Amino acid sequence: MYVYPLPLAPDTSVREQVQTTFLATPHISPYHPLRLRDLPLRERPVYRLHRVGPPALSATELIAAIIGGDQQLVIAQTLLARYDSLTDLAQAGPQELAQVDGVGPSRAAALKAAAEWGRRLVLEQSEERPEIRNPTDAAMLLLGRMDPKPEQEEFWVILMDTRHRVLDAMCLYRGTLNQSQVRVGEVFREAVRRNVSALIVGHNHPSGDPSPSPEDVAVTRDLVAAGKLLGCEVVDHVVLGSVARWVSLRERGLGFEGA
Fold first, then answer.
1. pLDDT tens, 159-214?
2. Do 14-126 and 135-248 fold alike per CATH?
């Protein structure tokens, strides 16, 4: 782990570190704001984030990395001195933050965006992920996301973990689909990137009739074969028609021969 060049006590705050830097360096006045350009590269927040990782950075350094600029450390210290905790800082409104000396509208927006990102991440991790146990579960999930009165076809991919809990669901295509338009590589791209073990594909028939076409079966067969090679099981291909009407190609054994 990176060690600062100044011999500071373990419990010394970043504010005290900066003050010590001012006092220990004759050519920098303690009344002159510390500028990023005055720090060696190895001590700059963004450089340290890349070198030692975000967990190793102090709260001041994290805020400085978010807001950027030559005065980022001074502004970060000002914010932490004004707000008692990171929670209070995150709860401050953008207009209030923008009025803090050196912040302004753009940096206030960056701070609020970072806080909201963190809030959503916590919510996402705490939510119970739905589990796909059967074709009905898959169909209900897709029906809840597709246009209830579709005028064109939509092709969706549901990514799942080893317990078939939903990790994500995304629409890959919209329009008139045929076998040549559904690209195997595109279907598996996100699954491979995220090391997903299983997926379900599904698409709708705007006519309302969920009966699988020969093209649907051919696409399914291609995807099942590719999934075996990539180590990502294609659990099912669900075709949706009007509300409460759908067909599971796996249940019918279409495209899953030998799977």
1. 999 889 998 899 988 876 555 578 889 999 999 999 999 999 999 998 889 999 99
2. no
Compute the distance between CA of residue 29 and CA of residue 124 in angstroms, rounded to an integer.
47
Is the Cα torsion angle 83, 88, 93, 98 positive or negative in sign? positive
Q: Where are the domains of the chain?
A: 14-126, 135-248
For domain 14-126, give the fold: DNA polymerase; domain 1 (1.10.150)
Q: What is the third-level CATH fold of 135-248?
A: Cytidine Deaminase; domain 2 (3.40.140)
Q: What is the pTM of this model?
A: 0.53
d(CA 72, CA 18): 13
Question: CA-to-CA distance for 122 and 125, rounded, in angstroms?
Answer: 5
Give the chain's mean pLDDT. 82
User: Could you say which DSSP state residue 251 is in?
Assistant: T
